[in-house]
Amino acid sequence: xxxxxxxxxxxxVAAAAVLVLAPVAAVASPAVQYTNPLVNQxxxxxxxxxxxxxxxxxxxxxxxxxxxxRRATTLQGLSTAAETVIWRKHASGVMGAHIWAPEIHxxxxxxxxxxxxxxxxxxxxxxxxxxxxxxxxxLTATWTEKGRITTAWDTFALDASTFxxxxxxxxxxxxxxxxxxxxxxxxxxxxxxxxTITGTPVRIATPTLDWERRGYAVxxxxxxxxxxxxxxxxxxxxxxxxxxxxxxxxxxxxxNLLSAASxxxxxxxxxxxxxxxxxxxxxxxxxxVSEDGQSDxxxxxxxxxxxxSGDPLNDPNxxxxxxxxxxxxDGTPNxxxxxxxxxxxxxLQSYSNPGRFVRHYNYRGRVDADVSPLAxxxxxxVTGLGGAGTVSLESTNFPGYYLxxxxxxxxxxxxxxxxxxxxxxxxxxxxxxxxxxxxxxESQNYPGRYVRASGGLLYVQAVSDxxxxxxxxxxxx
Length: 477
What we know:
Distance between the termini: 49 Å
Helix content: under 10%
């Protein structure tokens, strides 16, 4: 082969290799915004979106005495949706105390609710139970008790959840295993029907790390999301106070999920308390999807304060919250931080440089790819400090700090309350100068100047050509 053709062929093969082997870039999806908290005094929250177009919500109530359901066509609508009690604890015997952590699933044409309960004569004899519901709407379905899920040991067991992978249905749950000095570990087993497991349960997580053993040695509340050829299992760790947090196990979707070796535990928690945003003890999560089906949504509970008087189990103020779950370029989930109460934040993706997002770095506004930590690129679009129909962009991880221009450079700075700061941090939200489906931000005090990226940095500048219009346009993610 002539040298010139050989060189061209070699370059073509190399390019093809890059196409095959390079990591897939993180894909932005349309912004979703909700207002937190979603539901007060509801813990261990689960939300599922069913094929009938409704979201179904269930959670632990502070009285630990009943199982409740809500439904709405939007996630925010669950905040005010009527709540129905579908089952109450027994007056005596088993299932008579500590009704905890219900989960609802639709399996083979029927509804199933998994929950944990103690007994009236031993409230700490926590075991797992199942209800079966017949009817299209679970709020009005006929519910029957299918009884206890029998496991290998008659010990403390809770937080049952189920998923299907490779055509096989599995149960994951938390249990105290005899001979192991922990409060609970995470297990998996195959299921023969929605209330029965088969085979030997496999222990896939034990609280061995420091952050899993604060207050209590706990791994509990497992739940699964499947994406990008992998199975991600989140679990909660430590005591149910401000130490509560989320850990992560990962397995290949093609692996033997009944082998403990298939599951890799992340060395650090993936979601923890955050004093800056005022969120403490985030945990016992579930996953759902946005109304447009394009974004994954993290559902969890936490408290708005750190200090708890007495036993955390007697504190009623865990509340349900939601926020968007992002995905890294390597296909792994990025939980970020529990965002402040109020409207949830968005990312602003550069229209002219897709994959680059507005972020702060050393308080300077800029656009970058692969922003870490995620919260550096998250901003809440709030009512403008300057009023008169404007908006301001508040930092997520530095609440009270806003994007503002100073000498026409964009910085992230704390609101000092001055009229000048308020004007500099206020913008008119416009249809995108380069795309009507995107957004642009026009300075309130310098009309005709827009937030735009130039050389990787953000400025407030006049825009006069197509390139400038693209640089001053952002898509909300």
